[in-house]
Amino acid sequence: MNTKLNRRALIKTVGALSLGAGVGVFNPLEAAENPKKQLKGLPPLKITNVKAIATCPEGTELIMVKVETSEPGLYGIGCATFRQRAHAVVAAINKSLNDFCVGKDVDNIEDLWQTTYQSSYWRNGPVLNNALSGLDQALWDIKGKRANMPVYQLLGGKCRWAIDTYENAGGKSPEEVADTALRLMEEGFRHVRIQLGGYGTTHLTNNPDFKQAGFGMDRDKFMDPYIYRKGTLEIFDKTRKLCGEKVELMHDMHERLQPMDAINLIKSLEEYRPYFIEDPFSPENNRYLKLLRKNTSVPIAMGELYNSPHEWIDPIKDQLFDFIRIHISQIGGITPAMKVARLGEAFNVRTAWHGPGDVSPVGHAANGHIDLSVWNFGIQESPNISDKLREIFPGSPYLKDGYMFINEAPGLGVDVNEKLAAKYPLPDVQLNNWTQVRKNDGTITRP
Ligand code: GCO
Ligand code: MG
Hints:
Blueprint: H1 3-20, H2 28-33, E1 47-55, E2 62-69, E3 75-79, H3 86-101, H4 109-119, H5 126-147, H6 151-154, E4 163-169, H7 174-186, E5 191-194, H8 209-212, E6 221-222, H9 225-243, E7 248-252, H10 259-269, E8 276-278, H11 288-295, E9 300-302, H12 309-317, E10 323-324, H13 334-346, E11 350-351, H14 361-373, E12 380-381, H15 387-392, E13 398-400, E14 403-405, H16 418-422, E15 437-438
Parallel strand pairs: 4-5, 4-12, 5-7, 6-15, 7-8, 8-9, 9-10, 10-11
Antiparallel strand pairs: 1-2, 2-3, 4-14, 13-14
Helix pairs in contact: 3-5, 4-5, 7-9, 9-10, 12-13
Residues 252, 254, 278-279, 304 line the site of magnesium ion.
């Protein structure tokens, strides 16, 4: 006797009985055969338009994707911000992404992500990944609105009541950095990233040989590895002495030292118990992570410059760093970032998503929804969202006592006032090429 038939007959009987009893148990087999019996889920919804919203109210090009749907008034907003190549991302959105997505089913986020990702044949690049991220985040925004719940609920709900953040303590001297760190602790921050004059301490070095020789551009900067190493040791020393042992201190090396110098500097920072040292190497030098691990137990954060799984899978699998610092729009949005977080969980790598000024408030919210819902959350770079930006982006995340809070509205919780945004169009010239840093002889270094 064919058991399948028996099982089907059984389900039918149960179904009929429950129907008889008015319970109306859903019968998947019957539904499969008869669309009319299918569960009345959400009405199918089509994408009707995908467009870029670009604004530059404070000197940083912010790019969003707006996905409009066949349900009047229902749309989603996602972050596609890549300020160094803003115009290229806008073109990718308004042309390729719109043509590819219009008419497609809004609900199938994973399928839309995968088909869009491979629709360019060549993939894993910063421009197309940012466009894809804008689409992806907007689709999650729509799904949250349709489900009438914040996106973190769709990602599995809260693992914590709020999002712990770190703030940057800069300064022109080690004393100034330590004072700033103390002030931030008084404002409620438990984690502080200390930087002497931004990245590479370039403000303490001037008139290098290449400038005297008239080589390079006037705006090119010079970084003296000796002054940088000395300054970094001093800020840790001064800050620990002034702020005590408890505060968690981090530092961003921004991949500027030669790898062996980076390893030696990190070893000499061990006594200051750094919470993490960020970007000791460029992605091109990922291979040095193995040697670094052999030489020190200082926790490492890596990845804001990663665009491709080829860059993060092995180092995570081999536990070569402790925090993944990915800029989620640079890899394609929430969908891939959740996969990175899950991979990290398996190898005890925590998240520390990239969240500086060149992430839009929508992107900060997307970081926040993931931060709330993944178990292996580490720390979040704190968003500094001005009142001007809050006007353009109602529902932006906010900070209190060093914690970030997101808007608990359905979706991602952040909207865009398009009229206000349009008042600050992108400048025609590319404003933000990344800083050109050179050695004394003029050789360009990783940024
Ligand atoms: C950080 C980063 C940024 C980047 C910037 C590039 O850790 O926050 O290093 O400051 O340099 O986002 O555009
Ligand atoms: Mg960094």
